[in-house]
Amino acid sequence: MKAMIISEYGENAKFESKKVEKPILKNGQVLVKISASSVNTVDTMIKNMGNDLPFSPKSPAVLGMDFAGTIEQVGNDVTEFSIGDEVFGCAGGLGDLQGTLADYITADVKLIAKKPSNLTMKESASLPLVGITAYEGLTRANVQKGQKVLVHGGTGGVGHVAIQFAKYFGADVFTTISSEKQSEIVKSYGAKSINYKSESVEEYVNKHTDGKGFDVVYDSIGGENLLKSFEATALNGQVATTVSLSEIDLSTMHFKGLSLHVVFMLIPMIHNFQREKHGEILKKIAKIAESGALKPLLDEENFSLENVGKAYARLESGNAIGKVVVEN
């Protein structure tokens, strides 16, 4: 089969098209012909940092985690999937798990689900990592109907999905943006936009919550922005974050009695720990999409497997709006 291979890691790493052996099916797996895969920030981190990250595959490596495709073979002990099923998941590109930038992948059935019937392969491939991340953060923060939820970065990969899930759960959703184009996008998802460049945290907390703060804040920005999240959260409120790799002052969090939920959705893949939870969440994501309550936001640029290097560069440029997806 064809695969895009990285021989050496680094910011200038190049993807090369090579013929490699098709992966051998094991028990508990299905062989999937990949139609599309998406690029996530963690993928670019692996490409650039390589062995500095404990979960990077050994080079030469096939990267990529998210995919959508069609099952061509099933393992002897697999009963819940059949040949011809269209599926999606986040199942490769870490440790000894072959990535998705290839014609085929053998996927652990615990990490996949049947793709949403009303979404294309490209749309479905954009969802697994960000969808699981958004869902886990919101459910751990116990989002309830009628609560006020603030999502930072509403047109980002995780952010645009978190908005839609929070709306689906019945919350009143607000999100930070930085342009009129982004404002129009988040309004289409039913969120009220806050331009963080022109409004301070204090100003938008006073404006939208009468100074009380938001019940739940979802922060996929991290770093210093976590301090803004603590400032924006109500007393005894909930903060979910995907980026806590920083040293920051927790004083505000302490005096407001906040709960912090750190979401690192790669744990089941890296440690083979409760992988079935990912499959269960993906089933719920498919149901939400099929109800019409979830529409993926795809970047306007199109990429093929052969020019995946440009797809990675697009995401790293910071100019992408929504998910960058590669089509086979």
TrEMBL record:
GO MF, any single term: oxidoreductase activity
CDD domains in alphabetical order: MDR6 (cd08272)
UniProt KW keywords: NADP
InterPro entries the UniProt entry points to: ADH-like_N, ER, GroES-like_sf, NAD(P)-bd_dom_sf, Zinc-ADH_QOR/CCCR
Ranges of residues in domain Enoyl reductase (ER): 10-326
Superkingdom classification of source: Bacteria
SMART domains in the record: PKS_ER
Name of the protein in question: Quinone oxidoreductase
The species this protein was found in: Oceanihabitans sediminis
Upper classification of the organism: Bacteria, Pseudomonadati, Bacteroidota, Flavobacteriia, Flavobacteriales
